């Protein structure tokens, strides 16, 4: 193989790898995107786009106000929040255990050249969370009810408490509520989810100021449109 041929091979390999990445990305979006939009990749009509955008507008305002410099997004899905945070110039790690969603997020990082965004294919458990670093902000959106379903309420509460300890400024929380089936083993949220969850977070996020950030569109497991409460727990100023 002469020198010119050796030079061409890496170029062809890179082109072929990029093609494979693109094909996999397209395959993962077929037949439709079922959760987060990714407008930077041409994905705007995701099923939950309106609710995702309304959450982001609220979250963005608060992390700007609190001068957040580092974020962990647990259960980042396609990476809408992580990419949005990265494009604000904030360091972020997006964590996702679903291979399809993780691939899309990783593809977005590479395609957009985001040097301050990281991707971790990883399952959050009581034992693995000890590996997480402390950060200014933690996003824990629509994940807690899955943890309670798999590990029970007590362990779900302890995981939430440990994440709060690793949060320096603000912890964002949202979960499935009374629309979730009984097999999720969620507690009855009485007298209503807003009051119950605010009281619950005040007990678990010790010393934090709990702020209600409104109701946002979501979907129940049977596909019905519902509203869920979004909260922020703010650490006392040090």
Describe the 3D structure.
The protein has 238 residues and is of the alpha/beta class. The chain has a single domain (32-234), classed as Vaccinia Virus protein VP39 (Rossmann fold). It is built from 7 helices and 7 strands. It has helices at residues 3-28, 49-65, 80-86, 99-112, 144-151, 153-165, 193-204, and strands at 70-74, 91-96, 117-121, 135-141, 167-174, 209-219, 225-234. The chain has a 7-stranded mixed beta sheet with strand order 3-2-1-4-5-7-6. Helix 1 packs across helix 4 (99-112). The longest helix has 26 residues, at 3-28. The chain is globular, with a radius of gyration of 19 Å. The mean pLDDT is 89.
Shape: globular
Question: Total helix count?
Answer: 7
Question: pLDDT under 50 segments (min length 5)?
Answer: none
* Helix/strand order: HHEHEHEEHHEHEE
């Amino acid at each position: 193989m002469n020198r010119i041929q050796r030079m061409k091979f890496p170029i062809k390999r890179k082109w072929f790898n990029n093609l494979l990445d693109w094909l996999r990305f397209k395959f993962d979006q077929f037949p439709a995107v079922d959760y987060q939009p990714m407008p930077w990749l041409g994905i705007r009509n995701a099923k939950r786009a309106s609710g995702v955008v309304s959450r982001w507008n609220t979250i963005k305002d608060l992390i700007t106000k609190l001068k957040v410099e580092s974020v962990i997004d647990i259960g980042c899905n396609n990476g809408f929040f992580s990419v949005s945070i990265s494009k604000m110039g904030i360091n972020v790690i997006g964590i996702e255990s679903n291979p399809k969603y993780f691939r899309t997020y990783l593809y977005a990082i590479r395609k957009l050249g985001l040097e301050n965004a990281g991707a971790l294919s990883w399952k959050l458990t009581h034992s693995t969370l000890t590996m997480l670093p402390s950060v200014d902000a933690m996003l824990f959106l629509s994940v807690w009810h899955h943890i309670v379903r798999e590990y029970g309420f007590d362990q779900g509460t302890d995981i939430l408490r440990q994440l709060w300890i690793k949060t320096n400024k603000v912890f964002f929380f949202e979960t499935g509520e009374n629309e979730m089936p009984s097999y999720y083993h969620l507690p009855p949220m009485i007298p209503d989810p807003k009051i119950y969850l605010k009281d619950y977070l005040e007990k678990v996020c010790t010393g934090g100021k709990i702020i209600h950030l409104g109701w946002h569109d979501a979907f129940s497991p049977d596909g019905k449109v519902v509203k869920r409460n979004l909260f922020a727990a703010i650490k006392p100023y040090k």
